[in-house]
Amino acid sequence: MTPLLRFAPSPTGYLHIGNLRPALFNWLFAARHGGRFVLRFDDTDTERSREEYVRAIVEDLAWIGIHPHETARQSERIALYERAARVLREKGLLYACYETPDELDRRRKRAAARGLPPIYGRDALRLTQGERAELEAAGRRPYWRFLLPNFDSDPFQTRRSEVVWDDMIRGRQTVDLASLSDPVLVREDGSFLYTLPSLVDDGEMGVTHVIRGEDHVTNTGVQISIAEALGYARPIFGHHNLLTTIDGEGLSKRSGALSLRTLREEGAEPMAVASLAVLTGAAGAVEAVPDLAALAERVDFSAISASSARFDPAELWRLNAELVHALPYEAVEGQLRAMGAPESRARAFWDAVRGNCGRVADAALWKAVVFDEPQPAARAPQDEDFLRTAAGYLPDEPWDRATWKLWTDALKEASGRKGKALFLPLRRALTGLEHGPELADLLPLIGRGEVLRRLG
Question: What sequence ranges are listed for the domain Glutamyl/glutaminyl-tRNA synthetase class Ib catalytic (predicted)?
C-alpha cells in the first residue's frame, strides 16, 4: 500500500516554524517510504481564511522544498461533509442542541463549583419535539453534537469506553470517551468545525498516516469514534511533541517573528529552518542537514521526546552559518550579481568571504570592503612610516594567494615587526576593519593599484 499523508493548515495567517514541524514530518515520511503528500487547506472559516495566506503557504512550503503531489480545499468539499452529517443524523448519532454560549458557560461553572468535570450532560436529548419547536419559534437555532459511544443503552448512564491505538511516536495511547463531552460538529449557522471535515477528508482521500502535534491526542480518540460510525478505515497515527520558545511558550501565527516569511526575509537558509524544525526535541545533535533527503534519513520517530521541544532562535543562525560556509558559488551566484560583485571575480570573492558570512546577504559588507570604498580606520601615528614602507615593498602583479606571504615576509625583514604589530595595521588600512577574511585571499581581489591607494 502506497502511504498517503497530508498537511492541513488553516489559511488564517502565515506559517511559522512550529507549523512547519508537522508539515515536514509528513513530507519526509512520505518521501522516505515512496508515498504521496497532500496539501489540504482547512478554509471552512470564511471570515478568517484569506487567499493571500493560501498563496503564502504554498510559497513558504516550496521555499523549504515541499512540493505537494495534490492540493485540495475544504471549502470545495462541503457536500461531502453535509452527506456525512446526514448519515450521522439518520443513525441518531448527531443530535440538535439549543443552549447559548452563556448558558453552557454557567453550567460549566456550576459543575466546577461542585467539583464535577465540565462534561456536557446531554440535556438536549431530553427535549421533546414540542420543546424543540418552541425554542426554534423563539429564534433559537440548533447546533449539533456527536453522540459518543460511551454508554450501553441509556446515554445518561455513561461508562468507561476506551479508544486505543498504537501511536507511531508515543506508543500505546488510550482515550476514555466517558471523560469527554459530546463534540460539536456543526455550528448554528450550519458551518462545520474542524473535526468532521478533517476525518471525512482523511477517509475519502484514503490517508494512511496522520502525523500531527500531541495537542491532538484527545481529538484522535473522538475522531476514531466518528470515523468508525461513518465506515472509514482507521489510519496510523503519530503525535509528536510541540515546538515552544526557550521559555516554554507555544508558538502562534499572531507572532510574526518566527514566521517562515520573516525568516526568509532575514536571510535564513531553508535547510537551517527545516533542520531546526525537525531535529529539535529529538535524539542526537541539532545540526545543519544539507537537504531534505538527508533529513528524511535522520528522522527517527521512536527517538522523539515526550516532552515539549524547546528551541533557541539563536540556534537557527548557528545552523545558518554552517550551511552558508559550505554553499558553493553556483548556489549564490544570482545573489552576488544582485549585490554588484564583478562577474569576473565573483567566484574567487565568494570563496574568500563565505567563511565570514552568517547569511549570504552578509557578503554585501565584504563586497563594499573589497570592491568599493571601505570605511577608513583610525591609524596610529607610529604606523604611518610602516605603511609607506609597506607600499614600497608591494610586489608587482600578477597576484595570487601567495602574494600576501611574499609581501609580509619582506616587510617583516625590513621593519623588524612581527605578529599583530605587522598584520593589524595592514588589515586596518586595506579593509577599515580589525578582523575578517584572510588577506591572502582578499589581496588579489583588491588589486595592486587600489592597495597602493589605501596604504597612502
Answer: 6-315
| Residues counted in the chain | 456
Buried b (16+ CB within 10 A) or exposed e, 432-449: beeebbebbbbbbbbebe
Read off the pLDDT of residues 26-71 as tens digits, 9 standing for 90 and up: 999 999 999 999 999 999 888 889 999 999 999 999 999 999 999 9
| Residue 253 is assigned to a ligand binding site | yes
Q: Which three cell numbers stand for residue 314?
A: 539563536
CB–CB of 313/250 below 8 Å?
no
**Distance in angstroms (rounded) separating the CA atoms of residues 292 and 243:** 19
H or E element in which residue 403 lies? helix 403-415
> Any idea which residue has 443524523 for its cell?
89
Alpha carbons 199 and 91: distance in angstroms, whole number? 18
Residues 6+ apart with CB under 8 A from 52: none
Residue partners of 120: CB distance under 8 A and separation at least 6:
104, 145, 181, 182
- Which residue's entry shows cell 571575480? 345
For residue range 221-255, list pLDDT tens digits in order.
999 999 999 999 999 999 999 988 777 676 665 55
**Residue whose C-alpha cell reads 575578517 in the numeric block:** 436
Q: Please, which residues have CB within 8 angstroms of residue 121's CB and are 6 or more apart in sequence?
A: 107, 156
CATH of 256-325, one of 2.60.120.560, 3.30.110.40, 1.20.140.10, 1.10.1160.10: 1.10.1160.10
Task: Return the CATH fold of 381-455.
Answer: Arc Repressor Mutant, subunit A (1.10.10)
DSSP 28-69: HHHHHTT-EEEEEE----TTT--HHHHHHHHHHHHHHT---S
pTM: 0.90
E-assigned strands of 309-416?
309-310
